[in-house]
Amino acid sequence: MPKDSGIGASPKRREDARFLTGTGNYTDDINLNGQAYVHFLRSDMAHGKLNGVDTSIAAEMPGVVRIFTGVDFEGVGGIPCGWQVTDRHGEVMQEPAHPVLAQGKVRHVGEAIAAVVAETPDQARNAAEAIELDIEELPAVVDMKAALAEGSTKVHDDLTSNLCYDWGFVEENKGAVDEAFANAAHVTTLELVNNRLVANPMEPRVAVGDFNRATGDSTLYTTSQNPHVIRLLMGAFVLGIPEHKLRVIAPDVGGGFGSKIFHYAEEAFCTFAAKAVNRPVKWTSSRSEAFVSDAHGRDHVTKIELALDAANNFTALRTDTHANMGAYLSTFAPSVPTWLHGTLMAGNYRTPLIYVNVKAVFTNTVPVDAYRGAGRPEATFQLERVIDKAARELGVDPIALRRQNFITEFPYATPVAVEYDTGDYNATMDKLEEIADLAGFAARRAESEAKGKLRGLGVNCYIEACGIAPSNLVGQLGARAGLYESATVRVNATGGLVVMTGSHSHGQGHETSFPQVIAEMIGIDESMVEIVHGDTANTPMGMGTYGSRSLAVGGSAMVRATEKIIAKTKKIAAHLMEAAEADIELKDGQFSVAGTDKSVAWGDVTLAAYVPHNYPLEEIEPGLEETAFYDPANFTYPAGAYACEVEVDPDTGKVSIERFAAADDFGNIVNPMIVDGQVHGGLGQGIGQALLEAAVYNDDGQLLSASFMDYAMPRADDLPFYQVDHSCQTPCTHNPLGVKGCGEAGAIGSPPAVVNAVVDALQSAGKDVTHVDMPLSPSRVWAAMQG
Amino acid sequence: MYNFEFENPSSIAEAVAALAEEEAQALGGGQTLIPTLKQRLAMPSKLVSLAGIAEMKGVSIADGMLTIGGGATHAEVAAEACPPLAALAGQIGDPAVRNRGTIGGSLANNDPAADYPAAMLALKSTIVTNNREIAGDDYFQGLFETALEEGEIITSVRCEIPEGANYQKFVQPASRFALVGVFVAKYADGVRVGVTGASEEGAFRWDEAEVALNSNFSAAALEGLALDAEGMMADIHGSKAYRAHLVGVLTKRAVSAV
User: What CATH architecture applies to the domain A382-463+635-785?
Assistant: First the structure.
């Protein structure tokens, strides 16, 4: 019998009432008195020497308040990078300056050169068109391997080369890995591309800067997944504003998928300009701007090798990846191909020896950073593809080969420096075989063949690491931030609660699921709990939402704070009932004394806390408000098994996904409906990457897929109905909720399933195809079939 | 967009007069022009809307002839034209596009990936303007190029209704315009094959296929017939060879479906 409230129930999302009726409060809905508008003049050249910016004509145009160029930001800090990677030789990465507005050079199409602040958006745009640029075009560096070649043009003249870092992991294992390959009975090698993506959240980025001359306070309204992080980065590193004079508000945010984690130049600009012109300054990105100014995702080129012994046990794994950083280091870019990627290369398998080499490369392209999954999809894709290829080369069942090599005992310390706390990979694979009806595949293939279509089945596993932690470890790995989360739980006199969380909801449904946890703990109705997030002025310092961390880390902080509340209310209840504190029980919103019929209601106790007439004032303070900061002991490790069935039209190469099944282990589940939705969304993005999406640059550094006319976002009819199951649950052992995180799993686990399925379909027709690079567009699949 | 004057005439004569002004631009349903203006890629001094001209409306069928007003929307064509052309119109864009976009606007724009040109070439069409009639075969003159003179308006389109016809569209995954589209029409005096999306020269008739189909109207007659990939368009969605191949596949499918 499903529950109708608390943990495990699926109440409808309370935030949807405002989102679906047009009453949300997004950043673009914020309009301040006296507001001016900014239009950024962006480079249409990928690489050029900026000899001059002449604003003299533009400055005289109607409505212009002021025009800013790079000169105005000399002496102002650049956009900081939040993670410093140390390479395999012990050297720190090359870290170029990242100006708010271009200085001396432009380095990618879309880089902001000048900013016009004017009375109206049109006037700002008109004046921007009248700015005269003197740019000397330089050869563009686009291909990563060419960028590392001797004599390549440098993206940054003051760096020694276009190599950001050359990372080896685990460097000490390299010799042993090479030896294992020399002794292997079989080696499977695969070269592949993890295609560059544009996040494309439904809401483009927006920033509104405000400055109060009377108080000297700055406020930034912005489309962010982590307003506290923006406040710290922008205040401390760019503009020199201490936190107590800077407020950052990220109100309703319409999707992020990683692209709204980072601190962007436009945010710093609006905050800076608001003070400079002494009036609010607003920027709203157009979709066209978003394509060339939001951080992109993925963009890895990889060679992976898998060594097996004569009994088909994995003996070693070796990978060599080039990872595109783009023209500048976005906030967390260096961590993505390293600590969020190399540490996952063991996957679900007992491979004893692993070596990962990653060369991060600067190119004249938009900066690349975390995008749903961030490093883990890249790891999963190459690993699950090479295993599939190995199974086909060896003539063994791909599922059996995986099962044979599964990790089955936990905790398990991988050779890539992480320890999986729990999991049961055979259980999720068993569940997958059931919900995907793999037994019925042969019959379905025969039906497809009768229609002249090729049917393929792709199966793979994934593991993911959520809630990156603990802070002291990630500090050693190069993070320039902590990775805890915070919550303040405020209980009002009449018993209602407000939770001020450092997590940020931009589609995840925290306003619904977080109250379910508190309702369960206290035994009250969820409607008595309200969630506040997104404003640095009324939430404790927190790190925000990304990496599927909100419930596992933010939820745990909320649990810790609520535990403090419950402990205090038990003291008060004990006083009210003249009983020993140890005898007080809290159930269904009632405090009772064990073994007696004495009880007092939740609301009576909370009222006593604020009207402390009958209250142990000498022992405890009045009021009921507690804060907790939770720093996890480890990552959490969700895992699962996915199956995709495709039909390929042999005449055109068109792939259609006929079935898709996902069996996930997310540990304990708070709201199964929201988890289903997260999985569905993740699958949509993963299938989008596999079949449709690609950010394609030409040799001149022009983005060819710079609008939805050429960048194919998945539409509803590109996607099948899913079979989704998360009944396999091995609770996380080290957080109080036993939860693991579900936000990225679908995007991580689905691309290899799709590609495995297409390769299976093509091989079923006797085609000698072992790999097709994503996206598996009709033309690519057709070309692959032509040999 | 930049500022412009706006006129909303109620007759073809008034529209033609308004378009005589330099830099004036006719506005059909605006499904291409308005996005172009929003991106500031065009700067007309004046837009002359054709949406209020009653004599350019309507779809009718009489005496084996289909007549479509230049101002008829794709949705109206989808609802009222003969079935093969109706099916084509129903695949253009989405409902919002189909309820604004017009056949006259589409043909005047002659986007190389638009659907209508394939049909107009196959359906023995006549493009009727405010001052002349242009045979469909003479109308399309390359990418975004047509036989229209400056200020000339497509007032209606006439097509001879075939014995049978079919349109096969293979969509570009992002835009869902035609990566390639083939319209096959079978008349008593011969078969006509119109192709859109494929050639660098814009929409064209595939003569070799027509010859083969005239002697044997079956997909089998097209076996071994291949278009030269040279001269085909290439972009991130498909190579020249792929487009040439698709023309063959879609033509066979269209013939089988007639």
Answer: 2-Layer Sandwich (3.30)
